[in-house]
Amino acid sequence: MTFAIHKRQAEGDPQEVLCNEHQCPHQATVAELKRKLDLQQKKTRKLGQQVESVLDSKLHHLAPDQVLSVTNSDARGNRRSNKTVQKALQVRLACGSRGYDFLKDGVIPLPSERNLQRRIEEVKSEPGVSMDGGFLKVLIFSVIEKCEAGGCHVDVAISDMGPSYKALWKQCGISAKRSREPVVSCRRPCAADTDRQLFFLADEPHVLKSIRGHLVRQQSIFLPDDIVSKYSLPTNENIKELAKKDAKHDRKLPPHLKPSHLELNHYDNMDVSSAVAVLNHSVGAAMRVLVCLGQLEERAITLAWFVEQVFKWFSLLTPRYIGTAMSHFKPQAHQEAVTFLEEFASMFARVTIRKGSPVQACANWCPDHHDECPEDSAPSFERVHV
Predict the structure, then answer these.
(1) Of 284, 166, 312, nearest to 215 (Cα)?
(2) Domain residues for 92?
(3) Per the domain annotation, does 365 fall within a domain?
(4) Which of 197, 217, 264, 307 has minimal CB crowding within 10 Å?
């Protein structure tokens, strides 16, 4: 390769200078620049492949509008799809405002809360979120009548203690107060000329939260004398002592128990998970360990036993797996569970909590009505909750 370079002399006449590829002084610079260009092109191709790999692996579960919001820094004009809005609403209700902001800012490309408000502010809502107690009574009683007509036997209505169900209880004359004798049943709608009663019970999480509240507020709970003698129990001790000892030595014997579970505010009173963390078998086991180590007095065994009994009761009535559910397919386990529940109900009815607690109102009612629900009508289960 030969280059012709015209170099102007002092007199102004050009002089041709030949530059071949072996003698040109710029050839080394050109080669170095070509090498750097080739390296940068390789890096660019590699980064492009990495970006495509990340997009394929991380964004495959996102909707097209979410992918667009990730790849485009300007979100204006990007209307969220109904599927994305529905998913965002589910996350917002599950995680709360702070949790939603955390996920939106650093994890998932979600629309803003104001965007969600604009999308749902014109959605028509049917009645049902806040129902009138009288309407709910008519609805529940009509369902019971249809169940009875179909051969089912409805003995009890179990509900949470939300405002609508409190209104239903009031409509049916149900009350549980310390000032007077509790009323836990009313005449069932299809009793005809018999005196069959329909019982109303609070659900298991509400009872568990109520027991947790008594313990955390350091209210004395006195067990019946025969229970104390049967299980050789000493006197009572508070769970806060366990939490203090466990935090001091950083053992985490009860893995789910946190100090915040023992300092309740208005919203913590409604939290089921914190109640399960306090009234948990691991708490009872941890107290027994500290008693053996000499860090808790022997009287803490009483509270450990009570916590374990409450947790077992809650686990039997709220099974999360088929294997732990009560069924006649496992006769021995079923009979052991029934025996335990009968003993627990008898014990809890005779427990003294201050001057009496509304949570004990239905403890004397035994749900085992063999005369009203023959065994041949329910071969696998004794009761059916409607």
Answers:
(1) 284
(2) 59-120
(3) no
(4) 217
Give the helix ranges, DSSP H, for the chain: 27-58, 64-71, 82-106, 113-120, 133-149, 163-171, 204-216, 225-230, 239-249, 272-278, 281-292, 300-317, 331-350
For residue 75, give the nearest of 118, 46, 115, 31 by alpha carbon. 115
Within-domain flag for 270: yes
Domain count for the chain: 4
Q: Taking a C-beta distance cutoff of 8 angstroms, is the pair 114, 100 a contact?
A: no
Torsional sign, CA 226, 230, 234, 240 = negative
Q: Is residue 219 part of a domain?
A: yes
Residues 296, 191: one domain? no
- Tell me the percentage of the chain whose pLDDT exceeds 90: 1
Residue type, 63: A
- Strands 221-222 and 185-187 turn out to be unpaired
Question: What digits encode the pLDDT tens for the residues 132-158?
Answer: 778 888 888 888 888 888 888 888 888
Residues 272, 213: Cα–Cα separation, whole Å: 11
pLDDT of residue 56: 66
Q: Which of 53-67, 73-87, 232-246, 259-273 has the highest mean pLDDT?
A: 73-87
Tokens of 139: 């609805």
Most confidently modeled range among 2-16, 65-79, 287-301: 287-301
Burial of 257 (0-12, 13-18, 19+ CB in 10 A): buried
On whether both 28 and 158 belong to a single domain, the answer is no
